[in-house]
Design goal:
The complex is a heterodimer of chains A (220) and B (595). Helices cover 78% and strands 0% of the residues of chain A. Chain A has six helices and no strands. Chain A has helices at 2-23, 46-75, 86-111, 114-144, 153-184, 189-219. The longest helix of chain A has 32 residues, at 153-184. Chain A is flat. Chain B is mostly helical. Chain B is built from 15 helices and two strands. A two-stranded antiparallel sheet of chain B has the order 1-2. In chain B, α3 (78-114) packs parallel to α5 (172-200), α4 packs antiparallel against α5 (172-200) and α7 crosses α13. Chains A and B meet through α1, α2 and α5 of A and α5, α6, α7 and α8 of B.
């Protein structure tokens, strides 16, 4: 649970700092004066705040899964690490490119460049689809090589963590499809900027999660 | 105490709240069924939660009938008894209390109390309710699968959860886990909404420190829930994999009839860690909104500002933070590293500090107050009693050495029912009596309410207080009958059990009276008017009662003060609503100082 607790401690420290800064010097019983403006900074628009909170929830989910991974390793004595197929490196590269493509799409949206936005949006989605297919191939290869889910807890956790990650990406692709639909309906780059931005941030986040999971699988 | 005076222009906050685009409904379906109005969703949540809660109460009566009068009701066999125990616990904790406090009260009060027209994401809000509704249906469906619902206890510990001999291992467990999964996904949508709405859609002047404590409680409880529920989700997914795919996350090597079962080397302890990492914050997910609601009701009905508002906020934050580092106090006898026990006993006892601050502040709010013993106030005071009692027995159970002999006895059952069943339920009643006039425009019947209160309050003590003695006598929880252990359990235990059962039946009857009161007063209750309790918060200042779509009239209210301006010296009335500017406060006549 150490990992989860570290994650929570960081989150809590941030939250406590924020709460204290908003509450410590306030005299709530005074009818005038006081801090009247304690909205979040202008840059934190409603969709961004919502995404940030969702990412905190997802992080909690991944932190707990990783904690469980470590605890199961520690508690049981039957852990047999499985090989890391080369295909995983290829998939990692594809995911990095997907994330980059979305970043360029977002940049294009900010430059009001409709062509670039569309091109990189499609490339990003396509690469993400390729990543998920690649992961399915990895699962098939491992299964064919006798690394069944039931054979060893290391295998079970491998399938569990990678599926959890892939499911989050698929959820992201649903959001991506909605953005694509708006693009097809002829929305201007300016109107699409917020949607593309949310997708991009979510993709970067899932890329970081993938690095953490991959590192975990490689080192244990 | 408010300072009355001066320059109105200084209140204008720098950034205007953007006007929300409200989804408007065009048909009966989108108005009453697939509504995106937070108030309708709140009522849908509440009605579903209360219905399923009544069913869980019925299950508890079945449990009590067996314990009070064993061998009398052939309908209840050992398997169904365990299933009743399991479903009673799970429904009450998750599907009633969590859903009602956050989905029900949260949806109704967040927009109204912070001066918003609706939730930030109305569509997501609607989805959230329907996910919850489906999760309830799936849970209920488990009664109709072969083998019935799971009977592993609400804590769902593997390995017995999915081992031969436990009721409901074929269909029941799967339905339970799937239902929890759907509930968690639905809750995440709702929770996201509550937090974003509170952060972004407060009206002009509604600073964080001018929010009613109800909103603070709901806000922090939602944060806890968003971070804690994933632990249950991970556990549920892994249980499903162990059960359906044959993995060994939690299932250890086991032998049955000399043959090894397919699982190998899994860790039941891992499940307990994950479960309680959710399970303990869950206690506070239920308790923090209750704390908030009680604070507001006490202040309103004692006509006095809440004592130590800032301290109350910080105590809520402290309790919420600490609730994440005490989970293993549920596991003192689980076989975990014994050194952990000491650590977790320490953190557990530290929680007593912010909790005690809250209790003292509630009592000090009442001190010299102009107390009106209206129905919400009775229940709120009832909450203080049951919460203190339950908290006190928690001090015993929080200490490892005292807990070891008391673990899994009726002492534990008495403790947690006092602190996290009775106390929140008292608050729910207080809240319903308090806000029903706003929600329906009519008062609940006073006489029936008084009967409801006294039977519930005294009756609940008659039920749960004796359980502590049963626990000290060594009576184990979850047993269908005492069987071979009976020589160790005195005969008087049976008399006490029969007494508890009679009290439980009476209390259950009083709840039916309450339901009747709810339905009857909807049409025949006394007209309430917009603000029957002379309360200060924004929901009482709406143009219409009940509030219409969009909550407020053309203009959103502007907030000039905190929600606790009761009995302000010099003012003509003993309350000043939050949206009254200082220069419009009516002053008492010269010389006529109120005391």
């Amino acid at each position: 649970m150490t990992i989860t607790l570290v994650f929570l401690a960081a989150l809590l420290a941030f939250f406590l700092g924020w709460i204290l800064s908003r509450t410590v010097n306030v005299e709530p019983w005074v009818a005038d004066g006081g801090t009247l403006n304690d909205r979040l900074p202008e840059i934190l628009t409603t969709p961004r705040v919502a995404l940030a909170i969702f990412l905190a929830v997802a992080s909690s989910l991944f932190a707990l899964s990783i904690s469980a991974y470590h605890m199961r390793m520690e508690f049981g004595h039957d852990w047999l690490a499985l090989p890391s197929p080369v295909l995983l490196w290829v998939n990692t590269a594809i995911l990095v490119l997907g994330s980059l493509a979305l970043q360029w799409s977002w940049n294009a949206a900010r430059r009001d460049d409709a062509v670039g936005l569309r091109r990189w949006l499609y490339v990003g989605g396509g690469l993400t689809g390729a990543f998920v297919v690649g992961q399915i191939l990895v699962w098939r290869d491992l299964n064919a090589g006798g690394y069944y889910m039931t054979a060893n807890p290391a295998n079970a956790f491998f399938y569990f963590l990678t599926s959890l990650h892939a499911l989050h990406l698929l959820g992201g692709l649903v959001a991506w499809m909605r953005v694509v639909k708006r693009e097809r309906d002829g929305a201007s780059p300016e109107a699409m900027c917020s949607g593309v931005e949310l997708c991009t941030i979510y993709w970067h986040y899932l890329l970081v999660i993938w690095f953490i999971l991959f590192a975990l699988l490689l080192t244990t | 105490m408010a300072e009355l005076g001066h320059d109105a222009t200084s209140y204008a906050p720098p950034r205007e709240q953007p006007e929300m685009e409200l989804p408007h409904s065009h048909s009966w379906w989108t108005t009453y069924v697939f509504s995106q109005d937070a108030k309708t969703i709140a009522i849908q949540y509440s009605v579903t939660a209360i219905s399923v809660g009544l069913f869980a109460m019925f299950l508890s009566i079945m449990i009590r009938l067996q314990l009070g009068f064993p061998n009398t009701f052939s309908l209840i066999d050992p398997s169904s008894y365990l299933q009743y125990v399991t479903m009673h616990g799970m429904i009450m904790v998750v599907y009633l209390l969590t859903a009602l406090f956050l989905g029900g009260f949260g949806n109704y009060f967040i927009p109204l109390m912070i001066g918003a027209r609706d939730m930030a994401f109305p569509y997501l809000n609607m989805l959230s309710f329907w996910f919850y509704f489906v999760s309830v249906l799936v849970l209920m469906a488990s009664f109709f699968v072969p083998g019935g619902p799971t009977g592993a206890g609400w804590t769902l510990y593997p390995p017995q959860l999915i081992s031969e001999g436990t009721p409901g291992i074929h269909g029941g467990v799967i339905f339970m886990m799937v239902s929890l999964g759907i509930f968690i996904i639905g809750f995440t949508m709702g929770g996201l909404n509550y937090i974003v709405t509170i952060l972004q859609y407060r009206t002009r002047g509604m600073t964080l420190m001018r929010m009613p404590l109800t909103i603070w409680g709901i806000f922090l409880a939602t944060m806890l829930a968003l971070l804690a529920f994933p632990a249950l989700l991970v556990a549920a997914l892994m249980v499903l994999l162990d059960h359906l795919a044959g993995t060994s996350f939690f299932m250890p090597t086991m032998f049955s009839m000399g043959e090894q079962l397919p699982h190998e080397g899994g860790s039941p302890l891992l499940f307990q860690h994950l479960f309680w990492f959710f399970g303990h914050p869950e206690v506070y997910i239920v308790a923090l909104p209750a704390f908030g609601v009680v604070s507001d009701i006490l202040a309103t009905h004692a006509r006095r500002n809440i004592f130590g508002y800032r301290m109350m906020v910080w105590a809520l934050v402290a309790i919420g933070g600490l609730s994440f580092v005490v989970w293993a106090h549920h596991m003192y006898v689980s076989g975990m590293n014994p050194y952990f026990g000491f650590l977790f006993a320490t953190t557990t006892l530290i929680i007593a500090v912010p909790t005690a601050i809250k209790v003292y502040n509630w009592v000090l709010t009442l001190w010299h107050g102009n107390i009106r013993l209206e129905l919400p106030m009775l229940f709120a005071i009832g909450f203080i009693f049951t919460f203190i009692n339950g908290g006190m027995s928690g001090l015993f159970l929080g200490n490892v050495t005292v807990d070891v002999p008391l673990a899994d006895t009726y002492f534990v059952v008495g403790h947690f029912h006092m602190v996290m069943a009775l106390a929140p339920v008292m608050t729910i009643y207080a809240a319903i009596y308090h806000w029903y006039p706003k929600i329906t425009g009519r008062m609940l019947h006073e006489g029936m309410g008084k009967i409801h209160f006294w039977v519930t309050f005294v009756g609940a003590y008659a039920i749960f207080y004796p359980m502590h003695y049963l626990g000290l006598a060594g009576v184990p929880r979850r047993y269908f009958a005492y069987g071979e252990t009976s020589p160790f359990i005195g005969e008087s235990v049976q008399h006490l059990n029969a007494f508890i059962t009679v009290a439980a039946v009476l209390v259950a009857a009083a709840q039916l009276l309450f339901i009747y009161n709810l339905i009857r007063s909807r049409k025949h209750g006394k007209e309430a008017g917009p603000n029957p309790w002379n309360a200060t918060t924004l929901e009482w200042q709406t143009e219409h009662t009940p509030p219409t779509h969009g909550n407020f009239g053309k203009e959103l209210p502007v907030v000039y003060r905190w929600p606790y301006d009761y009995s302000v010296p010099g003012a003509k009335y003993d309350f000043i609503p939050q949206n009254v500017p200082p220069e419009e406060v009516e002053m008492a006549d010269e010389g006529a100082v109120r005391t």
